[in-house]
Amino acid sequence: NEKQLQAELERQADIYQALGIQKDVIMRLTPPKDIPIKYTHCVVTLGSSVDLQRQADFAGIYIDQNVLKARDVAGGITYPRPHLIYIYDGGDFKGKTAKWVRENVNGLERPSTIADVIALGITHPDSLKLILQHHNIDAPGSICGDEWVPNVTVFEGFYSINARLDSEDKSEFGSALSFG
Questions:
Q1: Which of 24, 48, 98, 136 could in theory staple to 166 by disulfide, Cβ–Cβ 3.0 to 4.6 A?
Q2: What is the DSSP letter of 144?
Q3: Hey, is 107 helix, strand or coil?
Q4: What is the DSSP-derived secondary structure letter of residue 17?
Q5: What is the pLDDT of residue 174?
Q6: Average pLDDT for the chain
Q7: In Å, how far are 31, 39, 55, 59, 146 from 18, measured between CA atoms?
Q8: How confident is the chain (180 residues) per 10-residue block, as mean pLDDT?
Q9: Taken in order 134, 140, 146, 151, is the CA torsion positive or negative?
Q10: What single DSSP character describes residue 33?
């Protein structure tokens, strides 16, 4: 409902002020229509408006320098300014390749990008922690080189974004989707 959305936007706006984002920018964002039920996380993604390294550092996520060179692919969108999206954690896609997920996205859904997944870590750190207890998260809307998909994992107790072959179908990885 509208009241809950405004409260959530205000909560995220308060978080993002530490990264120099003005509160009114976040509060003016509008949600997409007809959000599928599986999209449980309302997330303001900063896209390229704030350096990805800075966003990852803020979230407490190590990001491999090669991943910072990733580009959008197959419908992935890194917005130039803050944008309201909803994220699905990809749990149903465990064991599917990132390439398969990219090829089977429907309608207004799109493969999540690195910026989307980092935004999930910034705005919903407890949710990210819980998801990573069940599976690692691919960001199939981004690609490094010709065939490497960025992913978030936990390594020795720390969050880390690295890359793996997008044709690997490992059961401990699920590809995130974004809506909006």
A1: 98
A2: B
A3: coil
A4: G
A5: 93
A6: 93
A7: 23, 26, 11, 11, 35
A8: 93 97 96 90 96 96 93 92 96 92 88 97 95 95 93 91 88 93
A9: negative
A10: S
Nearest of 172, 87, 180, 178 to residue 134 by alpha carbon? 172
Quote the distance between the C-alpha of residue 33 and its chain's center.
19
What span, in angstroms and rounded, lies between the C-alpha atoms of 144 and 165? 9
Give the residue from 50, 5, 37, 63 showing the smallest Cα distance to 177: 37
pLDDT for the residue numbered 163: 94
**What pLDDT, on a 0 to 100 scale, did the predictor assign at position 108?**
84
Distance CA 117, CA 56 (A): 10
CA-nearest of 27, 28, 177 to 96 is 177
Q: Does residue 141 contact residue 52 with C-beta atoms inside 8 Å? A: no
Chain length of the chain: 180
